[in-house]
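Justification of computing resources. Each target in the renewal requires a structure prediction run like the one illustrated here; the chain below, 423 residues long, is used simply to show the kind of job we budget for.
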Amino acid sequence: MISKKNEQLNWILTYDLRGSQTYTFRYFSFLSKLLEKNNNTTAIGLISPLNTSHTEELSVNSCLVYTPHLLDLIIIDYNIIQKILLFIDKHHYPKWIMRFFLAIHVMIYKVDALFVNPSNFKNIKTEPSIIISGGSGGIIKTSYLLSKKFNAKLVLDYRDPWNFGYHLLETNHLIHSLKKRFTLKTELKILEYAHHITIVSESLKNCFPKKYHHKITIIENGSNFEQEDIIPLINAKPAKFSINFLGTIYNDQLFEEDFFKAFVGFYNSIQNKELISLNFIGSAQNENLKMLVKKYQLESITNITKRVEKEALIPYLTDASIFLQLRFKDRSQIVTSKITDYLMFRKPILLPVSDKGDIAETIKNYQAGYVCNGFEDTIAVLQKEYQKFLNKESIMIHQKDLSHLSRTEISKKLVKVIEDLQA
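Resulting structure tokens:
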């Protein structure tokens, strides 16, 4: 029997919290700031074999995960399609079979397969007064059903869109359209019910029906670093000319090869090639990237790693010469946490082909680098920055106070949302 509801208890409901993923940093920062402001909050990470890709092969960050305010909830109550998906995954069936049953789940249950049956929460002995949903449509629906069950207020946090906005990475317009056909009514019902909605950008907010704009707050993707901690560490005159890409790289970012063509042209023109390095840190899961590096014969100077912990990223951020950002195919409304980390470390950002959207505007607004139009622009930028490197000039982008970009500062916006709902 579930006990009487705790006074002003918040739940943050999201994916498995044991890995160093972008969403974990977002929700840990929310949790930390809410607790700092004396808001009684528990973050619940939903551990399911269906979303093991979120943790990859990362170690658990025990100092963050195992505290009294974090709960790992193991999913055991699966619907029939989820059980089939688990069987397919366990026996390593072809991916097209997995995709087929994922589509079946959407058609039958009107939501993705990361939906969690509320019966899994029956052993939790406290009830929330506010639920903050952070995840896919499946987790949004779970949060909605729990909100109704507990008579709790519902806050929907959209890191990525569901039906309103760009179609998700590694999917195409056809798949997006089919999902929308079966899930749009579900999302609209939940949006109507939600007490508040948080979204990462103004452009995504504008994709939602105007009738919901009055209950939308923008809580941007922030940097995982604090300005005062990193400024003394930044190397304005690094010993090597390093072009660094940090984090996951998607096939939808590798559909054009302008950067690689330009980089090869630049690299072949350099006399002392030992001074050059190309790093993709956290991108090892992408086989197409490895094929492109091999195609352009860049293996000897290219470093591709698995995702690394926050502390291990710091040398790649402090000693970079250029930060590389690749556009997301035809999507113009994505601003990643990667961009804010790049901004915080004040080295020039290179966007080889403009996304004609949020990434390009961010670089321009902060005067933080180069928005190019393909091969010729990109090779010119590489040559220009390399000459500055040879001349031992400072390569730092001179910015004033950027402390507002940290997750610590950005999370204050959620505190305001929660306190208003509690009033």
